[in-house]
Amino acid sequence: MGVKGLTPLLARFAPASISTISPCTLSGWTLAVDTSIFIQRFFRSPSPSPQSRHIQGIYDLATYMHSLDITPIFIFDGATRARGKERELQKRRQDRIRLQQEYERAQARQQRIRTMQEIGIAVLEDMPGEISAESWEKSRAVEWLQEGLAREIMAGHTVDARLDVLEQEAAKTMLFQMGDSAVSADDLPEHNALELLAQLSSERLDVLARRAEPLTRQHVDECRQLVRALGYAAYTVEDAESESMCAALVKGGVADAVCTEDLDVLAFGGRLVRSFYTPGQDVLVMDVQQAIAGLGLKDMHQFRDLCILCGTDFASTLERVGPVTALKLIKKFGTIEQILESGTYRQRDGFDYQLAREIFGRNVKLPFSTREEVRPRSADRAELDRLQRLFGVRLLAGQAAGLDPFAAGALF
Hints:
single chain; XPG/Rad2; nuclease; coiled coil; PIN-like_dom_sf
């Protein structure tokens, strides 16, 4: 989640902390990459080669950075996560359960569509007048469609409201074609509801299938093997968050900024690069020191308390306190303790602000201490060949990258 509502808060009260620049402006920078964010993105993307889309995506990202003369440091989340993440991890588990249920509903809808298509073919193949409305097959079809309509109406719309409407329209059209007196011509849509329903349902099922597929440790390990084979610095963080390590590399002078979408980086004290590797978009650079000054806060401690009050992965919030109110309270009272002592605001369950503070302020041991240590090395061509054979594909620069910077011809 990051920090809820922080971006619009900064845009309103500390606009100087946010810069919009062209990606080429980052030439010569060293970026600590929150790699898990990108792996998730590539793994969920449509691809003609689902078994290698995460590998291809990371390769293209590295290619793109190389073309801009950016040095990446790839930071990976380990098998164990930071203490205090349990609430957010539980929420994600519940989200996965809901997603699986939605996927199963979409599969059931797809089966109903196939049945309607079969019924429609049978109706079209019948010559006018050769089949009576009382025939057993037709009566069964009418009964099935009527029951389905009743079920949809009683259940109400699902999250796919447009598909619900189309399914009802398609069923009504077919009932009319089969002579059901309960449906009149005035009830029929102007478009081909069944054809449109089949198209949109198939697209929706494809999206849900990608989202429901679990990203495993093996997928992450494969990406780690790739970036190391390409000669880039990589490190796996255990018992902590990758954003905290990325921010620490910035504070330690090893990197210039953190490349991620997660606003937690600012609470950890690092400079942030967002919207990177998004076709057709400039990148956002968010500076925490300018944010502190622009918001009128005294120091990093107050900024962290502000982030905690806005809402983070590590603690709930106070009732009736949004980002703007949180800023006013921190400027008025100075600390969360003094806000609570005022007796005006109630804590939600799980408001462990002290744990959140400890996580955001925790010192982590840097795996690299100088920029020389993270400079790209020569690629391990034998390992790259092995990865190619493993996935059965050639790792070529994708459309987003537009070139192969490692050689005049091909990398492999």
